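Escalation from tier 1.

The customer reports that the assembly of two entities below gives different C-alpha cells on two consecutive runs. Tier 1 could not reproduce it. I'm attaching the input and our single run for tier 2 to review.
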Amino acid sequence: MAAITSHLAILSNQHPSHLQLKPTTVRMSMTQQTRNPRLHWASLQADIEAHLKSSITIKQPLEVFEPMHHLVFSAPETTVPALCLAACELVGGQRHQAISAASALLLMEAATYTHEHLPLTDRPKAKPEPAVKNHVFGPNVELLTGDGMVPFGFELLARSDGGENSEQILRVMVEISRVVGSTGVIDAQYRKTMDTRSDGEEVCHVEEIMRMVEKYEGELHSCAAVCGGVLGGGSEDEIERLRKIGFCFGMIQGMAKRGFNEGNEVNEARNLALQELKFFKDKELDAIKILLNI
Amino acid sequence: MAAITSHLAILSNQHPSHLQLKPTTVRMSMTQQTRNPRLHWASLQADIEAHLKSSITIKQPLEVFEPMHHLVFSAPETTVPALCLAACELVGGQRHQAISAASALLLMEAATYTHEHLPLTDRPKAKPEPAVKNHVFGPNVELLTGDGMVPFGFELLARSDGGENSEQILRVMVEISRVVGSTGVIDAQYRKTMDTRSDGEEVCHVEEIMRMVEKYEGELHSCAAVCGGVLGGGSEDEIERLRKIGFCFGMIQGMAKRGFNEGNEVNEARNLALQELKFFKDKELDAIKILLNI
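Tier 1 run:
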C-alpha cells in the first residue's frame, strides 16, 4: 500500500500527457469474462436493487417518497455496493448478511450524487452532458431528499441487527460514516469545488486528481470491501487485506473514470490487489476478479 | 397522547386569532426557577458543548473542519440535546452514557439549520431577520458541511460503544434516523417548503402548523427523551413515558416558537407531561420540570 501511495505522490511530477486518456468502463470489460462471474456480479447488483425497492416503497407522504424513489434509482450505478456483497461472500459469509450495508452505501452515493447536482447560487451552471440527468424535481426537494437518504441508510443498517451482530454493525457504521463524511467523500467534493473555475471547467492537476480519486473511489471501495468482510465474519487479517484490495480496485475505477486507463499506477494497483487476493485462493474469487478486469 | 393528537386535529377548525400570539422562550421562564435546577440545566448544555468542542477540533483539512466548527457552534441553541441527558439522569443513568447521543442530536439539528438557510436557485430570498446568521462561507461549502455533520453524528454514536451497550446504541440510531429523516424533520421541511409563497412568506394554516410542530419539535424532543432513557438503562415502561413527556414538551416548545403560548392545547400538553412525570416521582425531576415551565 505504501508503494502505491508514494507512487501517487510521484505522479504530480509527471505531465498529464504521459497518461493515456481513453475513458472506458469496467462494464465493457465484463463482456470478455466467462459467463458465470458476469452473471454472479449481475445477481449481486440485482439483489441490492431488490432489497432497496422493497425498502423504499412509494407510500405516504408521497411528496417525500416519490422523489426519494426516483433519485435513488436514477443515480448512476457504481460497483461499490456489489463489492460489499462480493467481499462478504469471499470470507465465507452469505450475501444477506451484508445486504443492508450494501444498500446503505448505495443510498450514500445517491445522496452525494443528488447534492453534487443541486443548482446553488454560487455554483457554475453544469455543462450539458448526457451523464447529467434532468432535474425532475426542484432544487429544494432534491436537497431535502438527499438529506433524507443518509439517515435512511443508517436506519436500514441499524435495523438489520438481529441482536447477534450489533458490534459488527456499529463497526461498519464507523467505517461508512468516516468514508462518506468530512474526511472522505466530502473532503474530495471540497477539493473539486475549489478546483472548479467560475465557468464550470475543472482545473486538472494530476496530483490533485489522484488525491480526489483516493478519497472518493479509493476509500469508498475500500470501505465497501471492509464492511462486507466484517459482516461476513472475516478474520482481522482477511478484513485488512480486503481494505487494500478495495482501495486498489477503487483507484483503478477512479483513474479509468478520469481517463487514466493504463500506465504504471493502474498496473501497480492491479498487481497489489492480485497479490492480496492470493490469500483467498481457496475461496470464491470470480466476482472480485471481474472488478479487476483479470 | 390520543387526546392531544385529536385536539391538534380539531385545532384546524379554530381561527388563529383565538390563540394568543406572544412569543416567549423557555429561557425566560428559567429565571423564575429555583437556582439549582437552572444551574443543572445549564451544566447539561455546557457538557454537550464541551464534548462537541473536543470532538470537532480545528484540524487538517482546514477547509473542511473550520466551516464545520463554525456552523455547529453558530446554530441556534435548542433544548433537544440537553433533554436527552436529563432523561438519562431521570431513569438513574449517568449523563456521560448519553453524551454522544445528545451531541449527535445537536449535529443533526445544526445540519438541518444549515441546509434550511442555503441559497438555492428555487428558494425565495430569506427576509432579513436577526435570527438568520450571516453566511460566512459560500453556499457550496455550507451544503457540504451540512452533509458532513450527519454522518459525523452517527460516527460519534457508533464509536461511543464500549462493547457493552451495542444494542442500545443501535436502538438509539434507529430512533434518531427516523426522526431526522424523511418521515420526520424532513417531512416537516417539505411541508414548510410547499407552504412558502414565492415572496418567501409562509402560508399559515393552523392545522398545517401543528403538523409541522408535531414532526419537528414534537418528535425531535420525543426522540431525545427516548434516547436518554434507553442509554440510561430505563425500563420499557419508563422509556415509553419519556416518549410522551418529550413529545408534549416539544409541542409546547414548537407552539411557543410560533406564537401559541397559551390555550387549551398548551395546557393539555403540559398536563399530560405532568401526569407522566408522576411516575418518576422519586427521581431527579428538576431539569425536566424547567422544560415544562412548572
